[in-house]
């Protein structure tokens, strides 16, 4: 065997050995998961430029997640949500708190408590960040940071009596015990 072939074989054996000893996450194990997907929010009644109490419902959908402890496992989740808040088109995602359950494609769940920490409109897109701990289930004890970009929605509907009834866009999540 050539030196190059031995070097490649050694690297592959080392990687396989690392994967073989990977353990389920515990308090002392690094948790590092990243997900990409979408966020859709429905408003009833539709949002106008005047603050009002509305019922929200929707779903976060992560279509691609990478867990460094399980790099060969394809992960995804759906996370429906609902609630009420007082808001308007001029104060979308202005802040708040809530709970949500990630329903993983593996049959596991993660329950997290979130606090919307930041929102700002940049180039017509609303950017928001929600943070909070996973309180039970898969990755319990880790922290979640969700970055939400609301890019869709008919903003001109804010000037009509019916208002804007839906908004959505891309979303990203980082789950780690290092935040």
Structural topology:
Blueprint: H1 3-21, E1 32-47, E2 52-67, E3 75-87, E4 96-104, E5 109-122, E6 125-137, E7 143-150, E8 164-176
Antiparallel strand pairs: 1-2, 1-8, 2-3, 3-4, 4-5, 5-6, 6-7, 7-8
In short:
By secondary structure, the protein is mainly β.
Description:
With 179 residues, the protein is mainly beta. The protein contains 1 helix and 8 strands; from the N terminus they run αββββββββ. It has an 8-stranded antiparallel β-barrel with strand order 1-2-3-4-5-6-7-8. A hairpin with a 4-residue loop joins strand 4 and strand 5 (109-122). The termini are far apart.
| Helix fraction by DSSP (H/I, runs of at least 4) | 10-25%
Order of helices and strands: HEEEEEEEE
According to DSSP, the number of beta strands is 8
Gyration radius over CA: 20 Å
Count of helices? 1
How are the strands of the largest sheet arranged?
1-2-3-4-5-6-7-8
Name the overall outline. elongated
- N/C terminus separation: 46 Å
Mean pLDDT figure: 80
**Sheet of most strands:** 8 strands, antiparallel, barrel
- Unreliable stretches: 1-27
Structural class: mainly beta
Oligomer: single chain
Question: Per DSSP, what share of the residues sits in E-state strands of 2 or more residues?
Answer: over 45%
Keywords:
8-stranded antiparallel barrel, 1 helix, disordered N terminus, 179 residues, mainly beta
